[in-house]
């Protein structure tokens, strides 16, 4: 297995370009097929679809690049290897469901960092997911809505051209369906409000936050939400005043965000699921043999992890081989700390003893 | 103001834990202490030692991070893991040559000493080095440390064959130019020193 | 009726100690509307400068105060977490009275003060003035210490007032006074790094005066040699050039032995001795027999160590000697200190830059609180209560007839014995927790139960306050203002940071109110502590500790002023005895020959091991404050018995076993901590914990004839392995004296 993971050969850029192109091409094919040969494709949304293609290229590129890093690469393979282990597949699938609920749906690990942070993140994340679940298929022409032929009061939703449901105008489902983006926008705005509240008051957060990484994403989302809500306001309250201008403005904000997606903070949306793979890795490690520290003799981590780290370090050319043939990775972190202090203290003791003629 | 740096002299440490208590008062990680204070082996000795992040020039923790979550600021401070990215794998915890990063299982995330970034980034001293009563942890200018200490500050290390350069300095005798960690000391004193140098019974044996 | 109203677990449930872990407002706090107040730590005598962070009138944290010259921002863990006693759930917020079978119930101030004053009257009318006693403390400000003395002599007119500095500084103070003529550390700490040899006797500096560590390390960077005397290898002893693991109570052997060698080899300053001292010949005569071999037997160490110590100390160009409780807590505590000081004076290295002597004060105002007249034998300005001239001066300040001022009363231990004997019937105490801090704790608890009326002023319900009939909710250091005098003799300002919570009141107001109800209100009309300071300043005029030239403004401007400061423009006196001018009327230092004598209780067949007691860095004294702070309790949660593996092996004890340390007076059951860093004939138990975890259950109620300090540092015990205790006290949490 390790032979297959390392060494990594060939040019990183070429490799990543290739995966970027594959991802972009797949999306184009997906759009073509999903919209039944562009029959369901809405030409008004072509700029969105185009931006998506570019974004997907960027994501593919970045993801491939990311997987070229030795530690990422190793975990990627290990995660799948452990997950797909035939003996445990069923158990793993059940566990996957559980951790998806816990970590992705509820995001409980963020709650433990701070309630405020969790509240902000939950609203932001689910506002965005909700909006994305509607807008992406719409711009790809994968879903569309039409009035029923026999009744103007009934709306039908079609996915890939196949009717998947219908609802009556005037029902709450209709209200929800027509205003779903407004609901999402309000959720995101709530999230932004909490996030900015925290970032404006938490002394610690303020000292480490960066404009480009931490504030730009919030500004982009804010722009999308506000311009999107303007469209609703224009339609319902102002008889379509400036609608064209506003929709173009909205498109600009969305497209900018799409282009930012692979490169900025939002990339964590695609990195984060790696945590799921890691969960399996940790479980497998805990069930296997444990590594004992060569200095104190205590178990400190799974043998699997320690050996994998040696592989990663070798790939990164980190040379932890010791003079006596042992490996520094076999020393637990606590003993490393003690060892460094002992060496420094020993240097002083040796000096003072040689001064006193004792050595 | 002259640029200040962090200097450690482990041998000065008295184990009082002021640093541990004060670390938890720093705003970037308030309530959670990031510094380590080791009691080397209480049965044999009263030796203790603090360990903050050494802020390596090319941090191994960042190299082994699968999530690319560990970043260095332009002023050379290696930060805690980026919260959106860190997946809690502990590669950094196990790979750091100084044993610094902490994995906090409740938040499934690595945190570490960031030199009290809220303080040091605005010209204040880090908490631990401000309160440390023994001067084991000191944040001052290079001139001041050279003027007041017998030893010299160095920041070159070798762990096995791996050379490491750190932003944080350690005080060593004048003849030393680099700390080589090529043998792991199993005992509680350096091999060149007498065995059990702190055993009071042995000190008294002469009269029995 | 001073008995526990309900059982201890119930009292613990109602009044703690509860662990406080999260600051007011939580860890994540805002940075707006915050103010920083410069003040000082409330704990030990180092009196480190610190800034407290205040938000919405609540103390929410601290910030180092790097400009204060003594500690330059440095703090020990107690200082870092001291703010956690603010906004504490255990905080007493109103007066209370004892209710049998129930505990304590809130009462109004009016009712409380009425009851206290009528009980004082009743007891004094029935049994005489001296039957009502006062126990006070050395963590009070100078202003409060002054007020306590005046309150005793003017409002109560009782002779029986003493303070817990009796457990702390009195041996060192008496020795300094005898040899130098003045009871104060002779030098500012800035002299320490300039010394070429430093001798530290019986002072666990790393844990009990941590800030001093940097001064000593700095001296070593400058080439100083370090000598440490201690039965345990303390953290600073690990790096010492010479560590002498002296047997507890054997210090005179080392000091006299060193002097013997110094005289023999000519390492004494003859011209200085001739010019500035008296009594050297008798001293030389006495130490003649203290050959290294003879001295070593007394000290319980190899003779070579004593010779080495003399070789390091004797010829050095500059030197600094410091000591604390390790040599002072003995029935020969004063003698131990004198023998140490003899070394300083014989070398002539005193009163110059880098040459000096210091006693390391333990309590917050250990220095100042013994100057302002709350000792049984002193009036303000360190005046002698038996001296008619001194009495007249103070009577004049107070506006009372000289004969109304009582004569010398009982010191703390005899005072508690008089309570036990039924001679003292009533007690008011403040800032003193004798149930934990006095030796022979079982006797002390018995004594408390014999009081007819006991009123306690405190901010938490201390282990002693549980016995009170009335508890008056007082103030924390940061809820009042005033001055203290630090270990260096530096008078510094404590600022008021917040107001006392609820109905709690400033201590000085409580005392003035009681005095008023006793009909002496006219002598206690103060609008603020500053007015008390002004009166105290004048009262100290012409005394040894002369504060007359000080004002709060001058103290603040100068980051403290050293006494004596006799007139308004005087810069203060950081270093005493310059140019060989000592404090005695003849201007000379008085050598006093010292012979070693055994401790009150030496180990024998039945109790073969020496028990010595002391402190840990994360706790302070009786723990009434620090056992309520979560992170400090976490650091060292319950007392451990340090025992050498060789001794442990003989006794069949393994690391972590429960052991019973038992003396003729009582026992303490704690876990064993096997360490090679202690003498194999000695065990150590820290004393901060109550009840069955109190090391003072074992210690002996024997006192030094001069200073009346108890012999905390030596008693005879036996140690045996026992099962983990499961009684109701053991079931309590660690901070309350349990093992959970």
Radius of gyration of chain B from CA coordinates = 18 Å
Shape of chain B: globular
- How many DSSP E strands of chain A? 5
Strand order of the largest sheet of chain B: 6-1-8-7-9
Tell me the helix content of chain A: 55-70%
Number of strands of chain B: 9
Q: Most extensive interface, residues per chain?
A: A-B, 66 and 73 residues
Oligomeric form: heterotrimer
**Helix and strand pattern of chain A:** HHHHHHHEEEHHHHHHHEEHH
Average pLDDT score of chain B: 91
Poorly predicted parts of chain A: none
The span between the termini of chain A is 53 Å
Tell me the domain tally of chain A.
Answer: 2
CATH architecture of the largest domain in chain B: 2-Layer Sandwich
Q: What coarse outline of chain A follows from CA principal-axis ratios?
A: elongated
Structure in words:
The complex is a heterotrimer of chains A (359), B (208) and C (740). With 359 residues, chain A is mainly alpha-helical. Chain A contains 16 helices and 5 strands. Chain A is elongated, with a radius of gyration of 27 Å. Chain B folds into 2 domains: 4-52 and 114-207, Alpha-Beta Plaits, CATH 3.30.70; 59-112, Alpha-Beta Plaits, CATH 3.30.70.20. Chain B has 7 helices and 9 strands; from the N terminus they run βαββααββααβαβββα. Chain B is globular and about 65 Å long. Chain B starts with a strand and ends with a helix. Chain C is built from 23 helices and 28 strands. The longest helix of chain C is centred in the first third of the chain and has 19 residues, at 109-127. Chain C is globular and about 70 Å long. Chain C starts with 7 loop residues before the first helix and ends in an 18-residue tail after the last strand. The mean pLDDT of chain C is 96. The chains are: A mainly alpha (359), B alpha/beta (208), C alpha/beta (740). Chains in contact: A-B, A-C, B-C. Chains A and B meet through helix 4, helix 6, helix 10, helix 14 and helix 15 of A and helix 3 and strand 8 of B.
